[in-house]
Each structure stands twice: as C-alpha cells, then as structure tokens.
Amino acid sequence: MAESDNFSSTHSTQGTYADLILGNGRIYTQDPANPWAEAVAIRDGKLIGVASLVELEAFKGPNTRVHDLQGAFCMPGLHDMHTHPDLALAPRYSDDLDVGIEDPTPEQLRESILAYADSHPGDGWIYGQYWVRYTFREAGLTPGRAWLDSVMPDRPVALLDRMWGTMMVNSKALELAGIDRHTSDPRNGYFERDELTGEPTGLMIDGAYAMIHAAMPPTPVSVLRRAYRDGVHFQSSRGVTASKYVHVCEQRLQALKELDDSGELTVRIEAAISWQDDIFPVRRRWELLSGERHYYRSARLSANAVKFHFDGTVEPKSSYLLTPWPEEKSWRGKLNLTPEHITDMVVDMDRQGIRVIAHCTGDGASDVFLDAVAEARRRNGFSGVRHQCAHSTLLHPGNLPRFKELNVIAEFSPAAWYPTPFASGARSGYGQERLKRIYDFKGVLEAGGTAVMGTDWPVASIDPWLALETMVTRQNPWNDDPACFGDPISLEQALNVVTRNGAVAMGLEASTGSLEVGKSADLIVIDRDLFAEPARNYIHQTQVLLTFVEGQLVYDRHSTLAPIGLKAVWQGEPPVLEGKA
Amino acid sequence: MDGQRIAVTVVSGFLGAGKTTLLNRMVRRAEGSRLAVIVNDFGELNIDAAIVSEVTDAVYSLQNGCICCTVQEDLLAQFGSLAQLQPRLERIVIECSGVSDPQRIVQTLAYPQLRSQMQLDMVITVVDATRHLQLEGEYARLARAQVAAADLLLLNKTDLVDAQQLQSLRAVLGERTRVHVSVQAELPDALWLDTDLDVEHRAVKPLTLVSQDDHSQMFSSELWQSTTPLDVERLRGWLQALPGDVFRVKGLVVLAQGAKAHWLQHVGTRSQFLPATDEAGASATRLVLIARRDFGGWDALRQGLDACQVTENVPT
C-alpha cells in the first residue's frame, strides 16, 4: 500500500516531541539573533528548536531519534541559483549516432549511418556527429543533401560537423522541417542554397540548426529524467538543498515531476521555462506560462519562472556593452530581443507572478533589463516577485544600487571569476579596465542588494564548494598564482550569499536559508570548520556528510544514521559527473 | 566583375608556412589601391615606413585571438563597417590564424547580411613544403582542413626540398588542386587580382590570347564568347572537370534555363553564379579563362564549352 500523504494545515494536530535531534554540533545558523548553536530539533520537517542540547531536552520524547554530531560543522543548505544538468548530461545519455572517428572519410560516414539505421530500425531521425569537410573535398565529393540522399533517402538524417559550424541534412529532413527555396534564413545563421535555383543544398550554418531541431522529436523524458536524477544526486551529496534549473520545456518539467513523484527530487528546484527556442523548442510555452505550469508544483518543484538570453557571451564579443569593445570603434555587442520586447514581457510576467531570469553578461544588457524591471515596478507596483539578472558578468557602477531599489537579484556565475587558462584567455577579451570590475559581488552587496551564486554547469563546474572558495579568494584554487580577478568578499558574506540570499532568490526566505525555529530543516553537516583555516585550497575540499531537505535525510555519506533507522535517498561518495578541472 | 560587391581574399596557412611574407607582399601591393588587409597581429607586418602613411588606414588588426574560432558576430560587424568605407574598397584581404580552419570565415562571408556587400573571391592557403607532411594529430587535421578549403595553394619554401619530396607533396595535395609553387611566398598578381580580367571592356575576339603583361608571364588568359545560351548542368560539369592548370574562369553567362544572365566566377574548384543586373550585357556569354602559360589544353576547353551550348530552340 502506498504511503499516505502527510501535508499539514492550519488545524492539523501537532505533536509535542521532536522526530530528530542533532546534538553536539558546531552549528552556524545564519540567524543574526542566534548565530551559533549546539543542537537542532526537527518535527514534521521543520525546526522546532535551535539552541543548546540541554535547552532542547524537553523535545526529546520516547520516539525521538537523537544523533551526536561529534562536534561537526553544520549549516543551512547551499543554494545554486543557476545550473543545467540536463544540458550537460542528456547528450551523453541519448542514443544518437556517434561516428566515433576523428575525421571519417565519406565512406566511413556512410557505413556508420547505415549501421545505425540497421540497429535503430524504423523511419525515425538519424541524428549525430561528426563529419568533416576536408575528407569530402579530398574524396572529390560535395557534402550536402545529394550525398546524404544517396546514403539514406527515406529517413531524415542530420549530422553535425566537427567544427560545429555546419549541420548536413538530407532531403527528408528538409521536407520534415518544411525548408525549401521559399524559406527565409534565420537572423543568426543561414542555410546554403544553390545559387541558380535557390534550393537548399542541405548545409545548415550556425543558427539554422534550430530549424532542423524544431522538426525533430524532443529529447525523451527518460533521458532527461536520468540527467536530472544524476544532477540532484550530485547536488544533494555536495550539500545543495535548493537550485534553479534554468531553461526547461514541457518534456523537462515532466522529467522533473517524475523524479519528484518517485521521491528522488532531493533538491528544491525552481525551473525556468525558456522564452526562446534557441536551445531547444518549447512546444507548450504559452500553455505553461498561462497556467499549465501549476500542474508540476510541489514543495520541491516550481516552474514560476521564465529564462531568456538577452545578450551573448565574451568570446564572440556578443555581450552587449555600454561602450564599444576593446579594439573596436563602434561594436558594442548585440541584444537578442528589443528593449520594447523585454519591457512588455517583464511587465506581463511580473503581473502573473512569474520570475524573469535574464541572461545579461554585458553591462549594457543588464542596464536595459533593469530599465524594464523599473517600468514593471512603475506599472504594477512591487508584485512580490524578484526578477533575476543572470551571470551579471559586467555591471555598470551606476547600476549597483538599483538591485536593491528594484528588488532584482544579482546572480553571478563562477565560470571566470578566478584565474584559469580558460578564464584568463576568454575573459581578457573584455579588456583590462572591465576585467577589474568583473563579477562585482562586493559592489552589489555594499549597495544593499541581494547577490547569489549559480554554477552554470556545464559552463563552469557544478561543485558549489569551488564557487564558494573562489568567491572568498578570487584566486586559482589549485595553485599559488597570486593573480586575483575582481574583488573578493569575506567568508561570512559568501556563506550568506549561498544560504540566505539563495533563499531570497527562490522566494523562500520565510522558510529556508537559515536555521531558525519555524523554518524548514534544510541543513547540511560537513567534515570541516570552514572558519578554521584560510579559504584557499581548503574550502573546495569540503566533504558533505549529511544533507537534510524539509527534515528528510536525503544524503548520508557514511550511512551514519542507519543505526537509528534513518535511510538516506543517496549514500556513499558523490557521483563523478565531470572530469578533473 | 561585380562592381557592387567587395572582393574578399582569405589567406590561410599553418604557423610558419609563410603567410606573413605573403601578406607583406600584399600590403605593398595595396599601395595606391582601395585594398584593406585584416591581420591577426600588426606586429608581424614590417610595413615600410615610406608607405605606412598610405596604408595604415587600410590595415586592420584582429588581435583578440584566432578569428576563425570565434563565432561571427564581431567579424560580421567589422566586415559591415568596412563595406561602408568611402572611397569604397575594392578588395579585402583577411588573414586567418595559423591554427584555424578558414572555412569559418568562408561561412561568415556567406551570411545573408554580407552577401549583398561582399563576395568571397578566393581562399589562398600557404603550404610549407618542408613541414606539411611532418605535421601530426590535430595539427595535421587542421592543415588538411586548410588545404581542403583553399581555391589556390601556394606551395612555399620549395627550394628547401628535393624533387622527390616535392612530388610526394603534390600527390598528397591532389591532382585537381590548383597549386602555385614558390620560394618566398611570391604570388603573381594575375592569380589573385583581377586587373587583367576586365571582361566588359575587352575587345571580343574568340579564343585570343589577351594578356601578355610582364607580371603574368607565367599565365595566359583566353576569352570565349557565344551568343547561344548554355545548358547549366553541362556547364557545371565542365567547370568541375577543369584541369588543375586552369586557375580561374570568370565572366557573363547566358543560360538556357534561366531567365537572366549570370556572372560566373570559378576559382579552384568553386563556382559562384550571381544574377547579372546589367541588362545591356545579357545577350552574349563572355568568359575569360586564366591558366598556366604552358597549358596545352585550350582546344579541349573550347570544345567543352562549345558542347555546353544549347543549339536547338528551347520553347519558352
């Protein structure tokens, strides 16, 4: 028989005793009135006592479980406010064609396509990678629909080249995507045409990929579910109790709901519906935004958010800046949507209680976004929804106070807030002057704003402890390089960023983010006192021992609580999701 | 050939192959002409002090790393602003980083917003005769990509290899690839500039040797003309089968299947057709062919073109 639901309401009867008491800990509560404690008492998922063990004695009843923390460091759970386990893992788990040869000849490619078709019978899409142009040229062949039709005429085929600049498709794929000589090119790419007839040649360049993706079946829910399952497994075992999965569609929400229903969604998730189809198509966008999203709602899952890409990134110089890029006379980058579009959209979403999470890397993009929020506040008043400026790579100093004024969350992603070969190379494109004020946590915090951290995996590591350490050092965590990017903040500030501020960003500040009576028992126990040693090369090595969400034991590294009858959802070492950095 | 669009020459080649030597030659050639050069690094160009004042404005630097690895945004913008320069540029030479695939730039130039303003004229890849065959792994793959993207290979430093090495190199590069052999990255103007190929103002004399200038003594060019429309598929077949000694074909073609005349440009193994806007020139096909001076296949070429003519009346 299934477990009965156990929701509590205003008139539910409440017990007298705690379900669990964790005692003899060094508990960093994030409650300014009571910053340190020795023990916590938990009942029905909530904290009913945060004090000394002696003071909590009264909560100890005949059925109360008691666990001795043996002096271990305990704190509220971590908040990773921007990440993408689906984008990182789903491609690994999907069963696409992988030619598996660095530079296959057309003949090898042909054999590979035919073998895949044999092992995947039917009339479904054949999608995969890679081919290279030069082996075609060397063989005296022209890549494109004609060649691909000669290999596979009756099933749609789409193959990416190794440079990721071109997708080769056959006639069937073009037909299913509805692309012919009358079709217009997208703004951010094009498809190659025969110059005399205008017919597509079957080579889709850059942004034209999306035209094919739109015709393909979406990533299966089972693949997405596996990706999210591994993502939350990792996050729980690294102490994350709340996270935002930025960019979802109906398939992704279904996968998250299935995890939730099976009791494996061990992290509180805010899922942001994609406003554009630039990563994957969202077929039920308008249904979701107008109310269908509520069907997915639970204590662990919310889809009351929307995400969009407002500008680009540093490498292609597409971040939208207030002044021209270095070495450029007038190029400032570009916005993917007009300011008018974004203003109307923010006003509309704000009215519906939907959080807008805007990808803004350039100081020009965040400037326009803040203007849009200002207009929403002017028209709607404060709706209670705090919108989120994602990445916030560069912020104009004049905009720092506006985060507080407008109730906008400044989210920073650690991809390049400390020196690494990647960061030093890629981010140097902004120029030295801008590099000095990159990821300005300190500026936002000093101006009274709410700053949060989002790992943005797979752009950066999903490990929150790496982000936490480098917030404090802004230095490379693995060597002695004295180089430092931007302004560090104190450990106290950084811990506030990943706990209390995260809760504010989730809209859950009343129920989590600190260890206070009445709040949810979202807490972690770790293997070290974070204040005991200098942060560098120390904090990122932290091991999480126990993770609780809503009082539920979701992770128990050494199964220490098994003897008192508590079985965690996840046990043992965290899963290995990424290679060594 | 097309007065409205700026010709773009892409210069590629592996590190140390001799690109800078070639670019220096091109910068000198830029003197007094409306030619801009986009380089990866100013520092490597020893621009002669005497000509620096004239050419500085025409040399643009892309120092933010390898242009071919970045997405096109800034390149699109840079091309866009170059297209607005007055007096109008005739040609842009763009240098690719030594460890990049020029295909990236080729694809950028085909973006719809650039197509109306510029036209890829040719990709020249400088190949180091002493090192090309020794490259390994990812470097070897990049070098192959550079060779494959090229309309013309400048086989450089050939004085440092013996005849047998040269032969095996030629074999690797393929029979139909257009190859010009050099020692110090010398590139005859005839191979990359259009000065001899002014089709519109050429006296119409079928199959006449039309160019005997000093600097093009290694090459000869011929004019073929016809008032009979051509079959496009036969013409394409003829273009694809052109021998490696024929470097370039360009001119106006009147096609049997099309309503309009087209400008045709064929470099290496790549053909481009563009609808001709000038109605006056739309009545006859006039093609200029440029080949190695000692090329002996003119008769076959002419016969091939003759065979492209659609002799019977095509009902309209």
Automatic annotation (TrEMBL), chain A:
<feature type="domain" description="Amidohydrolase 3">
    <location>
        <begin position="66"/>
        <end position="555"/>
    </location>
</feature>
<dbReference type="GO" id="GO:0016810">
    <property type="term" value="F:hydrolase activity, acting on carbon-nitrogen (but not peptide) bonds"/>
</dbReference>
<dbReference type="InterPro" id="IPR032466">
    <property type="entry name" value="Metal_Hydrolase"/>
</dbReference>
<protein>
    <submittedName>
        <fullName>N-substituted formamide deformylase</fullName>
        <ecNumber>3.5.1.91</ecNumber>
    </submittedName>
</protein>
<dbReference type="InterPro" id="IPR033932">
    <property type="entry name" value="YtcJ-like"/>
</dbReference>
<dbReference type="InterPro" id="IPR011059">
    <property type="entry name" value="Metal-dep_hydrolase_composite"/>
</dbReference>
<dbReference type="InterPro" id="IPR013108">
    <property type="entry name" value="Amidohydro_3"/>
</dbReference>
<dbReference type="Pfam" id="PF07969">
    <property type="entry name" value="Amidohydro_3"/>
</dbReference>
<keyword id="KW-0378">Hydrolase</keyword>
Automatic annotation (TrEMBL), chain B:
<comment type="similarity">
    <text>Belongs to the SIMIBI class G3E GTPase family. ZNG1 subfamily.</text>
</comment>
<dbReference type="InterPro" id="IPR011629">
    <property type="entry name" value="CobW-like_C"/>
</dbReference>
<keyword id="KW-0143">Chaperone</keyword>
<dbReference type="InterPro" id="IPR003495">
    <property type="entry name" value="CobW/HypB/UreG_nucleotide-bd"/>
</dbReference>
<dbReference type="GO" id="GO:0005737">
    <property type="term" value="C:cytoplasm"/>
</dbReference>
<dbReference type="GO" id="GO:0016787">
    <property type="term" value="F:hydrolase activity"/>
</dbReference>
<protein>
    <submittedName>
        <fullName>Metal chaperone YciC</fullName>
    </submittedName>
</protein>
<dbReference type="GO" id="GO:0000166">
    <property type="term" value="F:nucleotide binding"/>
</dbReference>
<keyword id="KW-0378">Hydrolase</keyword>
<dbReference type="Pfam" id="PF02492">
    <property type="entry name" value="cobW"/>
</dbReference>
<feature type="domain" description="CobW C-terminal">
    <location>
        <begin position="219"/>
        <end position="309"/>
    </location>
</feature>
<dbReference type="InterPro" id="IPR027417">
    <property type="entry name" value="P-loop_NTPase"/>
</dbReference>
<dbReference type="InterPro" id="IPR051316">
    <property type="entry name" value="Zinc-reg_GTPase_activator"/>
</dbReference>
<keyword id="KW-0547">Nucleotide-binding</keyword>
<comment type="function">
    <text>Zinc chaperone that directly transfers zinc cofactor to target proteins, thereby activating them. Zinc is transferred from the CXCC motif in the GTPase domain to the zinc binding site in target proteins in a process requiring GTP hydrolysis.</text>
</comment>
<dbReference type="InterPro" id="IPR036627">
    <property type="entry name" value="CobW-likC_sf"/>
</dbReference>
<dbReference type="Pfam" id="PF07683">
    <property type="entry name" value="CobW_C"/>
</dbReference>
